[in-house]
Amino acid sequence: MTRLMGRMLIAVVVLLLPWAVPATASANSFVYSYRCDGKVVTTPGPEQVGKLCTILANGPADGQVHEIRMAIRQRSLGYVWMRATLYTTNGKAESHPFVMPEGEFELDANDAVFARGQAGTQVRLMTWNLLGGGTLDGKDSTGENLKQLIEYVNEVDPDVFFVVEAYGSETAILQGLNAGRSANDLYNSVPITVAEEAKYRNLWLFTKLRVAQRYTERPEITDFHFGGAKLLLPDGRPVHAFAVWSRHEDSVFAPMHHAVVNTQFGKPVSPTIETILGYDDTRRNAQGQAILQKVVPYYVKDDAPVIMGGDFNAWSYRDWTGQFANARGHAGLTVPWTYTKQFADAGFYDAFRYINADAGLYPGRTWSTMSGFGVAPARIDHLLFRDSKGKVRVLGARTDVRRLPRHQGGYLDQEYPFYSDHGAVIADLLVTGAGPGPDRPVVMEKPEYAPGAWPAPPAGTPVPPSELSATADTYKPVSGEAGRAVDGDPFTYYHSRYPDAADPTVSPAQPHTITVDMGRERVLSAVRFLPKLATALSAAGNPVVNMTGTPLRGVLEISIDGTWWAQAANVTWPRITGPNDVRLNGVKARYLRLRVDNGMGGATAIAEITPYE
Questions:
Q1: pLDDT of 15 over the 60 cut
Q2: Chain-centre distance of CA 551, in angstroms?
């Protein structure tokens, strides 16, 4: 249907079945179509369900600024699968990708028209825990990582940069950000945590916006954990910005990994969801209550937008609802996280999840870029906003977990693929009112298109473990023999010795090789490699995760006779616990040999190697 919503605002709400005929858009509004796998269709049909699609908007090219807001909803289930806010002056716009849902859904779309100069101001936000002020927690004493970190932030070019773990790097960061900038593009440095010793100067803000007031420590919560400032947009309107670092004790990363792995393979959920939720209850929930009920109301007396950025050390409750129970790494589990729900109940929106509505397609992992992402996607760094007057639009948001291309391949990159153990979160907001609208490209997250709690196995039939044997050039006796990689048990694993420069003949450095004998020559469709899944308990009985040994880069070789070898594929894998498949497309071989050139921690560990024929 089409209805008039107010001056110069048209709302078009189209009820769609995947095979229904959409309503006709009225005059002066936009017409919508869908691009799925490169094919443009007016109305999606059953063949588009499950495909990666975008929405195309076509409308007036009248030189004015048109704002288009759209969402794909399944109202009967309460699900939103896609949101987008787009701006155009030429009458054409395209949304970011989403997965076409099955069954009845709606496209909600509306457009508004603004005169040039009256669309609003784009504001880029960035939040990041720098890990010891960019020193990799003291592991880099050369200053090179901090130098590269500053170069990366300059590329992002945020208007407001929320820093956690500044720890003495704040002067170097300010100088590095302002070097070579014009006078109207300089950053202001806003200390949040005030301390004489660098190791206690935790929270900091860097911003191009004018600083009207700094919000100092309140008795309800220390400035080590929370504080902020009133900032002024170019037209003088205020926004309130707060930096956050929530308690990191009682991390749920290992318990969630443990619970998902056990559930995935048919074991009881352990720890229980109730136990896992208790980790938030220990200290974090009390901090949230102090922030929301005491500190923010003390400082914020108007209806200006409020933004928060930081390391919340807490998972998003929106990611773990029933809507995403079958997303990769969720294993059917739902978790009603209490800490982050407090902020949502207080009117705060999660910028990343708001614009990247599908937690399966856009998991947004931020922990841990260094020690591995585990099996359950951990998104613990957040940009939140509250907007009581409906003036804020989320244009785009992304997470960064990899060094810039020019910083890759060096000695730091080998062990530290990002500049910190946390990913960075970046979001582009627009505050409506005076301003040209979006004036630079919007940041966007790339889809991680891997539907299903566990990726479907490759085509073909798995070779039974009873027909496989394995040898390796290095292994840990008793607990890490090569045969454990072909025993059919995902909870056992092959593990190399750790490299030992003093005795390289027994404990060699990488590359490491593991060779599988399939008993006879076979025609192979693929081979699946499963990194080690096993979780352990600490002395206190708490789950721990150790992804050391997870392969990252290597070569798969094949042989008929075990003497002459041919390279079948170069292989690279993410730092995520889950199956990694190599397609072989009918290759003939009896032997498979994986050479691991780079594994986490310098070791090699594999739970299962499964050939398919």
A1: no
A2: 21
Supply 378's token pair.
């951990």
Whole-number pLDDT of residue 502: 67
> Is there a contact between 101 and 72 (Cβ–Cβ < 8 Å)?
yes
Q: Is the pLDDT of residue 81 over 50?
A: yes
> Strand, helix or coil at 9?
strand
Of 102, 110, 13, 89, the residue nearest 53 (C-alpha): 102
Going through 489-562 in order, the beta strands assigned E by DSSP cover 494-495, 512-530, 536-537, 543-544, 551-559
CA distance 339 to 357: 20
Residue 172 and residue 150 in contact, taking contact as beta carbons nearer than 8 Å = yes
Q: Is the dihedral of CA 497, 498, 503, 505 positive or negative?
A: positive
Cα 428 to Cα 171: distance, rounded to the nearest angstrom: 26
118-129 and 98-99 as β-strands: parallel, antiparallel, unpaired?
A: unpaired
User: What is the Cα–Cα distance from 399 to 414, expressed in whole angstroms?
Assistant: 21
Q: Show the DSSP H helices in 157-295 as ranges.
A: 170-178, 253-264, 273-282, 284-290
Note whether 114 and 437 are within 8 A (CB). Answer: yes
Nearest Cα to Cα of residue 29 among 6, 50, 2, 65:
2
What single string gives the DSSP state of each residue in 350-395? EHHHHHS--TTT-----BTTTT---SS-B--EEEEEE-TTS-EEEE
Q: Are strands 160-164 and 210-215 parallel, antiparallel or unpaired?
A: unpaired
The answer to whether the bond into 504 is cis (omega within 30° of 0) is no
pLDDT at 452: 60
Tokens of 495: 């593990």
Report the Cα 294 to chain-centroid distance in Å: 31
